Amino acid sequence: MALSSLIGFSYVVSAALFIIGLKMLGSPATARRGNTLSAIGMLIAVVVTLLDQGIVDFRYIAIAVAIGAVIGAVAARRVAMTSMPEMVALFNGFGGIASLLVGWAAIAPDAGGIVLTTIFLSILIGGVTFTGSLVAYGKLSEIMPGKPLMFKGQAVVNSAVIIAIFVAGYLFVQQPENLSYLYAAIALAVVFGVLVVIPIGGADMPVVISLLNSYSGLAACAAGFAINNNLLIVAGSLVGASGIILTNIMCKAMNRSLSNVLFSGFSKVKSMDMKIEGEVKPITADDAFYVLEAASTVAIIPGYGMAVAQAQHAVKELQELLEENGAEVIYGIHPVAGRMPGHMNVLLAEADVSYDLLLEMDDINPRMETVDVAIVIGANDVVNPAAREMEGSPIYGMPVINVDKARTVFVLKRSMASGFAGIDNPLFFKENTRMVFGDAKETLSHLIREFG
Amino acid sequence: MEVYIFLTFILMLSVILGFELIHKVPATLHTPLMSASNAISGITLIGAIVLAGKSADPQMATLLGAAAVAFATINVVGGYMVTDRMLGMFKKKGDKK
After folding, report:
1. d(CA B42, CA A67)
2. Torsional class of A338: left (φ above 0), alpha (ψ -120 to 50), beta (otherwise)
3. I need a labelling partner for A308 at 20 to 30 A (CA). Which of A79, A264, A375, A442 fits?
4. d(CA B76, nearest CA chain A) in Å
5. Is A278's Cβ below 8 Å from some Cβ in B?
6. Which residues in chain B show pLDDT less than 50?
């Protein structure tokens, strides 16, 4: 009795530490300590769980913890900041498979209907999270093509799989002793996870990662109901809520509903009958330097291309030189720039850019008219004025950073290919736009040399 | 049944609390928020530990539990460490290096 009370009380402390830790994550000044508190909460929970009298053998636990800790620590130390989205996706998937396995292992001969239902949910959500995250990982790390993968009759196949999942679940709860229903449910959940994510394109990944993040929390929650553990429920629902909020923010930033993101692969994109007229005006890095030298306010708008070119350190160097030259430098960060929420902020933080210079879209747009030069680095759709001006464009209505309102716009771009959404960008043809073709990092180094 | 009502009560409170807490997180911290909450979702680890230690024989449930322990540990250890690494880089002008 005393021991189980100790465990129960310690779980209360852990839950409090998770909550306080998440609250402290709300400000950059306290976030790191918040994360540490949350980790301490986790450590307490794990240590007291080892006191559980139901545990008779520690060998498997010790081996499994050792393996997991080494893999986790090495991965966390080695990963490059530019690869953070795929790392998060992969960790997420591991959380999902853990919930699936816990649900599976929790099946006992005397389990009742409610327990079996929660076990089924834990397996289902865990399985979908697992394979969904693996596919997301594949797409983000470019092991798989980032383009939406579609086949004929996809909607029919998906509906059939959903129905089959519920039939298998029902039969499993009715006859838990017949293991073939269990295996069918597991197999279907795993297949469904793949089917859900393959039709989603790379640019929509911020939404998918947020959603899978939420699922991993819900899976932990379901596992909590299955094994009757309230700490799992508290922690799981905190994560579930967090993922849903992020998903919602990402969808709003793209002016799309969640179902549109998840299922738009099935309907054809509206064809654009409007033609973009005008001429692209290229400029050499040398000439761009003279314009920058005379500028007093410079706004930098980064996108996924900055991550690809690993250009964040060069950006920071240019920022310092511009500041020495007397200019004010600010950054404009679109919520869906990059491949996960906050992707650009992490990269710029790595390059030592002060976080108070990073302005959100709603803060930088009103200032855009006073900006002398806006430098677009590897961003396309998030600065596309078609979202404002061209009804019928697939991204019409999406909130964008209005770089075209700046006095001069430099677009650093490899070549004239269109962005991820496959849409032409009228920004490139505007009167005040100059294209600086070439690798973003080289262009920046060139500018830095000119200043030096 | 009682116990499920109690658990649902807890679920309701923590979902609402979660929404309130996360709403206030600024966009700058969304990636660390995600990887930190990811680490928290590795809480399944404590359920897995109990299942992995239930028996000295390598039964099905023990092996499944042990596999779950390994995966959840990767999630927990990796998640917290990578979040710490990221947050260590967030600096304001004038902060000591």
Report:
1. 15
2. left
3. A264
4. 8
5. no
6. 96-97
Cβ A47 vs Cβ A13: under 8 Å: no
Residue A76: enclosing H or E segment and its boundaries? helix A59-78
Q: Does B57 fall in a domain?
A: yes
CB A233 within 8 Å of CB B7: yes
* Cβ-defined contact of B86 to A94 (cutoff 8 Å): no
For residue B44, the chain A residues in CB contact (below 8 A) are 95, 98-99, 102, 219-220, 223, 232
Number of domains in chain B: 1
- Residues present in chain B in total: 97
- Give the SS3 label for residue A269: coil
**Nearest Cα residue to A293 out of A433, A408, A435:** A408
Residue range A285-451 forms a domain whose CATH class is alpha beta
pLDDT digits (tens, 9 = 90+) for A51-75: 988 888 888 899 999 999 999 999 9
Residue A147 is predicted with a pLDDT of 77
Among the options A52, A57, A286, A381, which is catalytic?
Answer: A381
What are the extents of the domains in chain A? 1-78, 82-266, 285-451
User: Would you put residue A422 in left (φ > 0), alpha (ψ -120 to 50) or beta?
Assistant: left
Which one-letter DSSP state was computed for residue A270? Answer: P
For the beta carbon of residue A12, count every other beta carbon within 10 angstroms.
Answer: 12
With contacts defined as CB-CB under 8 Å, which chain A residues touch B5?
none
One DSSP character per residue, A128-194 reads HHHHHHHHHHHHHTTSS-SSPP--TTHHHHHHHHHHHHHHHHHHHHH-TT-HHHHHHHHHHHHHHHH
Give the three-class secondary structure for A254: coil
Task: Give helix A84-105 / helix B79-87 axis angle, nearest 10°.
Answer: 150
Residue A52 in tokens: 């559980």
What residues pair up with A410 in beta bridges, in sequence order? A375, A434
Whether B54 is in a domain gets the answer yes
Helices (H), A79-147: 84-105, 113-140
- Tell me if A385 sits within 8 A of A312, measured CB to CB: no
Domain boundaries, position B52: 32-89
Q: With residue A301 as reference, give the H or E element that holds it.
A: strand A297-302
Distance from C-alpha of A240 to C-alpha of A219, rounded to nearest angstrom = 9
Instruction: State the pTM of this model.
Output: 0.88
Task: Please report the residues numbered 49 through 108 in chain A whose beta carbons come closer than 8 angstroms to any beta carbon of chain B.
Answer: 49-50, 52, 54-58, 60-61, 63-65, 67-69, 71-73, 75-77, 79, 81, 84, 87-88, 91-92, 94-95, 97-99, 101-102, 104-107
pLDDT digits (tens, 9 = 90+) for A283-341: 888 888 888 888 899 999 999 889 888 889 999 999 999 998 888 999 999 988 888 88
Is A439 known to be catalytic? Answer: no
Q: What is the spatial distance between Cα A189 and Cα A123, in angstroms, rounded to a whole number?
A: 8
In a domain, B18, yes or no: no
The rounded distance, in Å, linking the Cα atoms of A71 and A4 is 32
Q: How many separate helices (H) and strands (E) can be counted in chain A?
A: 17, 6
H-helix or E-strand spanning residue A408: strand A408-413
